[in-house]
Amino acid sequence: MSANPETTPDQSDFMECYRGRQSAVHHAAYLRMAKVLLALEVCARAGVRLEGKDIFDYGFGAGTFFRYCARDSRLFGVEMDRENVGAVEEMLRERGYQNLDLQTIDIARWTEHPLLGRKYDVILCSHVLEHLPDPAGFLKRIGECLHPAGVFIGLVPLNEIIMDPHHVQRLNEAKIRAFVESAGLRVTTYMEADPWLYWFQPLFTRDRGWVHQLAQVVSLGLGLPATLLGPRLWFALGRCFAFLTRSKPVQAAFILARP
Ligand SMILES: C[S@@+](CC[C@H](N)C(=O)[O-])C[C@H]1O[C@@H](n2cnc3c(N)ncnc32)[C@H](O)[C@@H]1O
Q1: pLDDT digits (tens, 9 = 90+) for 66-75
Q2: Which domains does the chain have, with CATH numbers?
Q3: What number does the ligand 1 atom closest to the CA of 8 have?
Q4: pLDDT tens digit string along 212-237?
Q5: How far apart are CA 170 and CA 121, in angstroms?
Q6: How far is the CA of 234 from the centre of ligand 1 (A)?
Q7: pTM to 2 decimals?
Q8: Could you count the other beta carbons within 10 Å of the beta carbon of residue 52?
Q9: N or C end: fewer C-beta atoms under 10 angstroms in the chain?
């Protein structure tokens, strides 16, 4: 199952967008931390632990999630940009992570990637499914990489006011559950959270210009307190914020297991 270039939307921005962005401030940006905090929260709810595990982050972006994995875990990941893959590996080694296997991936031939030839305890796909023409096919293939007791952690955007130009799927709980069922997996935990960027979301659909710069200011302004407060407090505050501002959750997180 390889992606058909005629139906796959242009993902070339991911070739360069993470370059030169490995400082602590970059990692504290809300666009990164919102995903990490939600992944940690759904793991806490489901009792999934990240110590001593084989963890595969498919499409790891800037590598922020790895910074929250235990140093005794073995970390695997794929991304498109060779320069970014090298920078993330260097950042993690400087932080004391030794067991790393990070590789580039050609998304036109992603099914043939060698890292899809082994099995993992935990697989994370954060904000990847909405980029794919066939999320069910993707889940089926990646589900084959789970150990029998392994778990898949999925994160996707919800309730986009303006659809991001890189997205090909507008997802909701019903669609997610249908994709999971047709992939032969089962949902063990599902949650929706994170209202903070609901009204700001249109700002985040631009890749350049002053609107993009404003979005970066918003992202940093929210990211710093979120990083300091941690997932429990941040999402509890989020419920009050959602009530007061009539904001909807902008992310869903779910844990999948083999049947
Ligand atoms: C928005 S980034 C997510 C980065 C990171 N996981 C995060 O949450 O910030 C989407 C990633 O999906 C992967 N991707 C995009 N299109 C794909 C496709 N058609 N097939 C497989 N992977 C794809 C790329 O690796 C890309 O970096």
Answers
A1: 999 999 999 9
A2: 12-257 (3.40.50.150)
A3: 19
A4: 999 999 999 999 999 999 999 999 99
A5: 29
A6: 26
A7: 0.92
A8: 10
A9: C
